[in-house]
User: What shape does this take?
Amino acid sequence: MSYQRGALRKVHRKAGEMWVLRYRLTQPDGRRSEHTLPIGLSQDFPKEKDAWREVDRLGLLVRINDESTDTRIRFNALAEHYLKADFGTDAIRPKSVNTIPIVEHYVRDYLTARWGMEVAEDIKPLELQRWLKSLHDDAGLAWTTISKIRGILHECVSTNPALHVETRSKTSYRAIVITPAQTLSILKSLTSALHFALVLTCAATALRSSEMLSLRWADILWEEGKIRVSKRWAKGEDGETKTEASDGYVPLHRVLAEHLREWHAHTPYAMATDFVFPSIREQGRKPLYSSKFVADYLRPAAIKAGVSIADGQRFGLHNLRHSLSNWLVNKVEPKTVQGILRHSKTQTTLDLYTQDDSDEARAAQGQFLEALMPSGAIQ
Assistant: This one.
């Protein structure tokens, strides 16, 4: 067969207009038939010369001139297309800065590392299931993580080898839950007014750590008795909330409001646009570094308070969120708890969901604060 360069053509696909390389292949009966190989979206390669560069980079000319080469698409090409189309800058539904590197890690370090050179449609369900099980038995991955990897494979491959593959998705993780008495002991051991205000606010509102760090004083709606949650701090900047349901309000009980007012009177950064929990080291330009705070102050204070934390066991601000929900669940209506936690899925909080910032939610928060500090203040 003489050397062929092929030809470029734009075609319409579900992901958008894309470039393909047209070439001919000799069939066993001697007939020549046209085939195509995908190159990439035209928005990523706006000019024909850009598409040709990608052809060279992918080594497609070598492939189409090798009669013995199986020209069916391999998994690594599908995986990179998936990352570019669904997690790139032009994705129809942009993903958060926290989600993108996690998915890239799953795809490149697990899926592509194992299946990259396999023809995607030839991946067998039994072989896939054995591999997924080995990730748990040999690599020590949690079943919840393996379930996510399986889900990504489902999205990558049209002839889905994961369809008949089962994995467990229930997590074995159990968050450490602390009592109001232990929370009070932690608060008493914190000598910094900043740290005290941070822990008390987190314990009483169940805000996620990233939501806490993004709070500005303008978000504290004193007169309305609530706190506005419209963003979260991620990768050194403000980003969208974790879910649409997370974008809303949490109650601000008078006891919590009094302590926040006291902190507001003492903080050197009290402007409306200043962070409520600023980094003193960064002169208020950024919020406090939560990981350092947890390691240096919160974790030691919790151990001192009698909280059993094994070496390597997770414990941080998120445990205060778990603790509040655990304390409230048997004391108030489930929908009130879900309103405070701002869960987006019904099964997350007893299969009920509502965005509740009513007086009932504030009263529920008050019950916790009264259990934490019966006199309304910490001596």
Q: What stands out?
A: Residues 7-71 form one domain. The CA atoms of residues 306 and 353 lie 34 Å apart. The chain has three domains: 7-71, 79-173, 180-372.
